[in-house]
């Protein structure tokens, strides 16, 4: 073989291998709760993510998507082992997960150590885009602080409440949301009388409801979600407290739960980066497609799953499907503006959405937008050095 033929052959082989790489499937690890109190949240996130991928013809940056699923059971004790199954055994290209803040922190640690791409489609743990922030970690949802700070300011300034009690599950999400509510509430002159907690995922609220009734604060702020939120809102109404002490929350208290909560939820005010009646073209299209595909109404979790897909597409397009190029991937995501069903958002330097936080009121089966609690709110990203 002469030299020219040899060079031509090498070039051909190279081209063939690049093409093969380009068409290799992209492995997406979905680590979500598929059992327990957050099951519906995990399912909505998976549905939203898959809807986005389906709208792209089943491919991102030319690569077909292959899914590997792990049920994390919202159990922090099993989180490291579960995420390592995806990283080491399945060798996924990207992980999408999860709902529970405690599980997400273990995932962020493992993603950072192994330099695996991680997109968090719910869990608000402040540290994930704070002290633990990293080039390869992104969030399509919110920080716990971001979801609840505005409710504190609304309760004090607009609703003119002077005293409040908070009630939540005792773990990072509940602790960070109630602390953020307190920060907003006390900055505007309110006073928190007491923080009440139950262990996650317990739903025995009776003793604490009795304590609230006796203390008679002007308002109560709560974080619960999924099955636990349904039970709490119903118990609060059954105790008659909804008639005497207004219940506020981060919007998770009433999102995806209104069919089950019924009358007990009417009139509850919450803050969240999504509502059921935003009347935005992108939201209308999303809601119609989601309902047609899944015979279900979407909620905030479905939106966050969908937007995890959008983030992945923007990053992958910039690196032509090569997930090893983390810095280029991150630069593209940070430069982008996302047209989300929630409204537009951009990514902060710490990789958390900068977004409007709506004030919402439960009317019938909807969380209706009645105002904006915080415009283009960015998480303070305490401790992030990116
Ligand atoms: C969390 O653990 O961060 C979390 C869980 C459920 C929600 C919101 C936040 O609805």
From TrEMBL:
Residues 26-363 form the Leucine-binding protein domain. Pfam families: Peripla_BP_6. Keywords: Signal. Residues 1-20 form the signal peptide. Belongs to the leucine-binding protein family. This is ABC transporter substrate-binding protein. It comes from Acidovorax bellezanensis.
